[in-house]
Each structure stands twice: as C-alpha cells, then as structure tokens.
Amino acid sequence: MNEMSYSTVGDPMSGEISYATGMSPQPSHKLFNAPSVALATLFGAPAAGALLMAVNYRRLGQNGAAWLVMLLGLLVTGVALGVGYAIPDGAWLPLGLGLLFGMRVLAVKLQGEAVAQHVSQGGRLGSKWVAFGVGMAFLALMFVAVFVPVYMKSAHSKVVIGSKDEVYFTGAATKEDAQQLGAALKKSGYFSDRGTSVFVDKDAAGATVSLVMQEGYWDRPGMLLSAEEVVREVADSVGGFPVRVRIMDSLQNVKKQGLVGRVAVGKDEVFYFDDASQAEAAALGKALQTEGYLTGQGASVLVQKAGGVTALSYVVAEGFWDDPGHVAGFEKLTRAVAGPVGGLPVTVRLVNTDLESKKEWVVK
After folding, report:
1. Is residue 338 classed as helix, strand or coil in its secondary structure?
2. In this structure, what are the phi and psi dihedrals at residue 345, rounded to the nearest 5 degrees?
C-alpha cells in the first residue's frame, strides 16, 4: 500500500505550515526537532540552532524562510557576543540561558507542527549527534573568527616590563607610550615584577590609565585616591595632565574612576582630582597666592571633590601635623580660600610627601 506524501503551504515564518496529502512513498529527508535546535544552540550559539532550522525549511521547500532564519540567527549571535563582551562576567549565564530557551521556543513555534506532521507521515528526525557536531563547528568557527583575533590583538598591544608586569596600549596610545609608562611605574615602585597589569589609552581628550586590581581592592577606603596618586606621579610619561584614572578588575570591568589634573602657580602647583575642575584649581591657586601660602617655593596643594565632599590636602614637612599652631594656621587659611572651591564645609588634610594623611578634620 502506498504511503501518504505531503507538500507545505502557508506562511513559513508564522509556524502555520499545513499539508496537502497525496499518495507517495514516505519522506526520505530528515527534519531536526526543537531539542536538536536547542542542543546546537547550547554549543554553537543561536547561529548553530538557526542553521538546523534553515535546513528544515529548505527540506520543506521554503528557501526564503531558510535564508531569513539563518540571517536572524547570525544577527542575534553577533549582538549577543557584543553584549556579552560589555556585561560583567556573572551576567553571561542568564544571557546564555535566555538565548537557549528562546531558540527552543522559536523552533517549536515556527516548525513544531511541521516536524510533528513529518514524523506522523513516517519521516525521520535528524540525529542529535549531527546537531552536536553543528554546534561544535560553530563554536570552533567563533573561536577562530572572534576570540583568536582578539587574543592576537591583545598579545601585540602590550609591552612587558621586567619579566611579569605588563602595560597594554589601546586607542591612539603607542608602544612607545606603554614603554614610557612602564618605565615610570617601575621607577615609582608600582611595578615590582609581580605580574601587575596596567592599561593606557589615548584619545582627543587625553590619556586614560587603568590599574588592574584584585577582587575587592577597589572598595578599600582611599583606594581611588591612592590610584590617582600613582597616576599623578607618572602623568608626564603619557603626555601630561589631565589624566583619567580607572580601577578595573581582571576582566577589564571598570570598578571606580576619577581624574587627576595639575595647575602650575609659578613654581608651586595645585592638583585637582575627580569632580574638581581645572578652573577651580586655578582660582584656588590665586587665592593661596593672595593669602601668602604659595610663594614660589615648590609647594603642593591638592583639591578633591567626590560624593559631594570637598577636601583640601596640604603637603607639609614632617611634624607639622603635631603642632597646634600650624594646625590652627591651616584652618584659618582654608576658611580664607574655600570660596573658589565651593565654600565650606571643607575637609582638611595635612599629608606628607608620599601623600599619606597625617591629620584630618572638617572646617565648617
């Protein structure tokens, strides 16, 4: 007795595929069901699952739908790779599960009825080993086309200082910039051949120096200011001030960021950090000159604005912070020059030449 044959009609992308029946041998081709599509997606991203759906459409005579579903699969894969690169590492799992579930649902909606009809007519399902192979093939393709070039670019965009420390350069930064920064970091003591990584980037706005730190270090009190001090000491090696400063984790996710700049007041200098502006630093320098504090002897003052708090740090000689007379003098000075930096209250710090805070209080 002859088997019933079928042909597809209707809208292929709506999932509404119906059959006209007639007498013919059972289907010789195979179709992939939703679990096979999900399996290919698991190993090879949505593009791999889309390829199996495209094969189904071609075997059902729907060539236009085959091209469309393949194009969409490639598009979704490209977007997913871009999003995955930008999001934190822990967010990859829900993104991957969402894509996997979405492809399975899509396969059921678009082709579930056709596959079920195919099986009921005696047609066979595509092998899950084939689905696995397709997924692995796409995984290998992505590795060669995406991850290898990224790795090669990274490998060719760094310099090694000593035997372990590394400076990566991106944007308009050059290998020479990275070498100069690395040498300055080694001289300052920040690089000590412990496998420390630093990134330097340059654009039209200037340089950005990113320090890679171990998990949780960025939450320690004063860590951002410490990072900014590291960069302040080596700013000349990347073209001078201002320099944007970032603290990153090992996956290059930015955890904290700030800025350090410098205004020269004769031979003295005012450094500004974070939300403090160059204009405020310049106005503060003039006020300090007027009050007779900056007299061209190479004094340094730091102004920092962060989280709504303004702080002035005076770099002083050893023991100044223990003298009540000097402390009272700095409080009076701060009251006199607070206007250019937004007025009181101001946190006052007396720091040593290593910028370690020795005495701190709030002037209201």
Report:
1. coil
2. -75, 155
Residue 146 gets which letter from DSSP?
I
Look at residue 118 and give its three-state secondary structure. Answer: helix
Q: Are 21 and 37 in contact (CB under 8 A)?
A: no
> In terms of Cα–Cα distance, which of 357, 314, 318, 319 is closest to 332?
314
Within the chain, where are the H helices?
Answer: 34-59, 63-86, 92-120, 128-142, 148-155, 175-188, 223-234, 278-290, 324-337
Please list the ranges in the chain whose pLDDT falls under 70.
1-25, 85-91, 147-156
Per-residue model confidence (pLDDT) at position 88? 62
116: which residues sit within 8 A by CB, 6+ positions away? none
The sign of the torsion formed by the CA atoms of 70, 72, 73, 75 equals positive
What's the pLDDT at 89? 56
pLDDT attached to residue 90: 61
Tokens coding 303:
């102004």
pLDDT value, residue 355: 82
Angle subtended at Cα 86 by Cα 84 and Cα 92, rounded to the nearest 5 degrees? 30
Distances, alpha carbon 22 to alpha carbons 1, 2, 5, 89, 112, in Å = 13, 10, 5, 55, 22
pLDDT, position 80: 85
Question: Residue 9 CB: number of other CB atoms within 10 A?
Answer: 12
Q: Which domains does the chain have, with CATH numbers?
A: 4-152 (no CATH), 157-260 (3.30.300), 266-364 (3.30.300)
Q: Which of 53, 7, 74, 60 is nearest to 29 (CA)?
A: 60
What would the pLDDT profile of 126-164 be if each residue is shown by its tens digit? 999 999 999 899 888 887 777 666 665 555 588 999 999
**Which tokens belong to 350?**
């007396």
On whether the CB atoms of residues 17 and 52 are closer than 8 A, the answer is: no
Please return the burial class of 335, using the count of CB atoms within 10 Å of its CB with bins 0-12, 13-18 and 19+.
middle
Q: Cα–Cα distances in Å, from 249 out to 130, 198, 277, 281? A: 40, 11, 27, 31
CB 297 within 8 A of CB 266: no
